[in-house]
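Attaching the record inline, Q. Sequence:
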Amino acid sequence: MPACTVLALWPRPRHSGVMPDSPLQVIDSALFLPLIERARQSPRLRTNHNFHTSIEDNPRRFLNVMIQGTYVAPHRHRDPPKSESFLVLEGELAFFTFDDAGQITNTLILGRDAVGVDMQPGVWHTVTVLSQHVVCFEVKPGPYSAANDKEFAPWAPREGNPSAAAYLDMLVSSVSPPTL
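Structure, as predicted:
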């Protein structure tokens, strides 16, 4: 490659967020900051930012931005069977898997022990935010249908149930040292 071509490419221009007239969207802190604020303002303390353009897309790719204190009810993706991948881009969360009776079978601290996890269909799972916020990149097969996207665990409280806060506290305390 001629030296003048190399010089013409350096330094590379920086782009944040959506690049006008481009099929690219940069994933960086300029994208994260407004999403973190939107999640803080949300009653559920979380928000998604979709990269896919339709619920029919396959795969579905999105950022899941969660604030400490959000509750994600344990669930699985079995009918139709869907695998799922999580990568933590910022922050830390505990990723739990369970057996059919609701006993914790595995716990990983994503963002510390590992950066992500790829899960086969039908695994009971949930996440709890350990840092002030977490930004995850997720990939799941599409299309999306609210009617059958998740099967919620019968042994855990659903979102909005008064016992959900105590269940969340139990999960968090299982991975956090007691405070003095």
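Residues 151 and 172 are 22 Å apart (CA to CA). The first helix runs from residue 3 to 9.

More tomorrow.
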